Amino acid sequence: MTRYFLVVAASLLPLCSFGQTKTQPATEQLESQLTAEICQDFDKLNAAKPFVQLSQEEAMSTLQQSMMQVMMRHPDEVEQLLKASGSTTQAAMQDLGQRVAVKLVADCPAAMPLFMRLTNQPATAATAPPDLTVTAAERPLLEKMARSMCADLSTVTTPAQLASQPLQQKLHLIQQAKQRVLKTYAKEISSQYGPEILTDPARQNALGAKVGLLAGDHCASFADAFGTK
Prior knowledge:
Layout (H helix, E strand, L loop, with lengths): L1 H11 L12 H24 L7 H16 L3 H11 L3 H19 L3 H8 L4 H5 L11 H18 L2 H5 L3 H18 L1 H8 L7 H18 L1 H7 L3
């Protein structure tokens, strides 16, 4: 499961950005509670109308409405969190929403098809894991990229340090490492897959998933660290 989480992190993170602010225990507790309640809401909504049938617009509306409805059940706690952030209300709400979204991806099975629909990927993609088949032709490049990602991570953190980080910080680190690796190998990626991949988020996500899978083999200690906390 830790290796698959690394795949998900590497493939879905280009969809949004995550801040580096380390949350306090009380904040993490509230975010976990919000995540659990939103997930329960997702389960009910998904049972009424499967998320795989939603349009991109419907998926966005579902996510926004569910988040806001759950937050409105905890007005005092949310208001206190927003005031303590030191940011504008809009910025603080955006940060909170992003952190909760990260937890939903990691902890709520019903959230995955919804987030897949947000990327406008077809229902078949939302109901099955990404195709992680690595062909013989692409393996040399992907192996090199995976080793490079492991080396990149080792320059900014250690497995022990990573294991102690909150989830959003872990995801931020893997996002940054993947972006640096993609930039480093942009010419080789273009040569291997065609220049169109550099402007195709869906294909980049699939590429990131494969790199994440192989990175789990090359630096298992980092992959294990993602499964903690």
